[in-house]
Amino acid sequence: MSNQIQHINPDGLSKNPVFSQIVTTRGNGKTVYIGGQDAVNSKGEIVGKGDIATQTEQVMKNLQIALSACGGTFENLVKLSIFVVQGQDMRSGFRASQKFLGNLTNPPAIFVLIVSGLANPDFLVEMEATAFIPEQNSWRMEKTKVVGQTKDAGFQIGVRKTFAVPIGTVWNFLFSGKGLSTWLGKISLENFELGKRYKTEEEIEGKVNVLKPNSHIRLTWKPKHWTNTSALQIRVIPSKEKTTISFHQDKLLDSKQRDEMKKYWDKVIEKIENEISN
User: Buried b vs exposed e over 147-163: b needs ≥16 C-beta within 10 Å?
Assistant: First the structure.
């Protein structure tokens, strides 16, 4: 029997892109029950007191961390139960949740209950979730390392290629206006300096921590749609008249994010080749 999560919206029930009416699971795998998550960060601090949108975003981040710890993503959600304190603006909370759930191929079944209060009077929203992770995913998590996952740096990706071009030519291109737009995004050269924060027109942001000409650069990297910040290192390695460019990115949140960046850096390598090999 194949492992499967099936979302059903039968005729006779209303159809809504935000939620599914019925979700069934079949095959071998593990069911994950995530306890009620509130707007509390890893330090035990309440985030967004008095602001349901900020609290909702923190709750979603907590759910994302919990799912990732079990080898899953939001795509594995079966049911999401939401408890909202009476008098809150549901629309603000909804918009915040859609940053995480808005692009799901199939949304989970959703239950919403308006309550008079939660465990802490500063809590405005709480969510608990049920997920199903097929055996293939759970087996990887429990029996072996997931591809690209490390103990201390989370998920990581490395892409490299050697070009028949001197190191100086490669470095100068990477840190020219055209080169930066190829691998980082549109940004003026004066806004990309050692020790300073940067932000591209595409809203990728971070900080340049190390910059050693004709050797390597280390920076943090966070696109707008991510909730986490990754670490990126780019090295240029000379060998006679050839140069290898190496992109290594770690502290990625999960395998889905790793796959996203694998595709990204493969395209970057292709663009660089078209520019410096002609």
Answer: ebbeeeebbbbebebeb
Which CATH number applies to 149-276: 3.40.605.10, 3.40.50.1820, 3.30.530.20, 3.30.590.20? 3.30.530.20
Distance of CA 148 to the CA centre of its chain: 14
The domain made up of 4-142 has a fold known as: 60s Ribosomal Protein L30; Chain: A; (3.30.1330)
And the tokens for 227? 């909730």
- Helix, strand or coil, per DSSP, at residue 225: coil
pLDDT of residue 143: 42
What stretches of 38-153 adopt beta strand conformation (E)? 77-85, 109-115, 125-134, 149-150
What's the token pair of residue 63?
């759910």
Give the pLDDT confidence of 162-201 residue by residue, as tens digits. 999 999 999 999 999 999 999 999 999 888 999 999 999 9
pTM attached to this predicted model: 0.51
